[in-house]
Amino acid sequence: MSHEPYDMSDVAARIIVVDDRVVAGERPDKAGPATRTRLQEAGLSSVDLEIVGEDVGQIRVALAAALATAARFVLVLGGTGFGRRDHAPEVVREAVEVELPGIAEQIRAHGLESTALSSLSREVVGVTSRDEHGALLVASPGSRGGAADTLDVVLPLLPHILAQLDEA
How far apart (Å, rounded) are the C-alpha atoms in residues 118 and 130? Predict the structure, then answer.
């Protein structure tokens, strides 16, 4: 594996916010814009943001569209609980070829430093393929704090993950 720094300025990201209340205009999306800002500050070339309802079909379509744009990092915010409409982890898992459970465990552990509710979240982390076309997919809590915890863990690992995929 190369030890050269990975050029994050070539990396496109897509954030998919999954929240019926945001779609309905009942509450503002706080996590999506904060996450976009943080990814831009990390030097990613472009960071698109989309908001969809808590519907399996809508999540699948948004995820497929994100992968079709060649985004190398796709972050799905919301839908990681276990309520009737919380299906984001299952949809993300459908698109993952190789799951990285250690990262999901690390995100939950990091979140436990702030709230005991972190253990109720069902993060899923994985890559879509084992080559230079692979993207890192993450299903993350939709709260601003949960999204921040996810980025605290994932951002330092992202260059290493992409470098490994590119060298595969």
Answer: 29
| b (16+ CB within 10 A) / e for 128-161 | beeeeebbbbbbbbbbbbbbbbbbebbbeebbeb
DSSP 8-state assignment for residue 151: H
Q: What is the pLDDT of residue 5?
A: 79
Question: Dihedral sign, CA of 10, 160, 42, 90?
Answer: positive
Measured CA to CA, the distance from residue 108 to residue 119 in angstroms comes to 6
Query: Which residues make Cβ contacts (< 8 Å) with residue 4, sequence separation at least 6?
Result: none
- Please calculate the CA angle 88-89-92 and round it to the nearest 5 degrees: 85
Q: Encoding tokens for residue 14?
A: 């897509």
The whole-number average pLDDT for the span 31-56 is: 97
Write the pLDDT tens digit of every residue in 114-144.
Answer: 999 999 999 999 999 999 999 999 999 999 9
* pLDDT for 149 beyond 90: yes
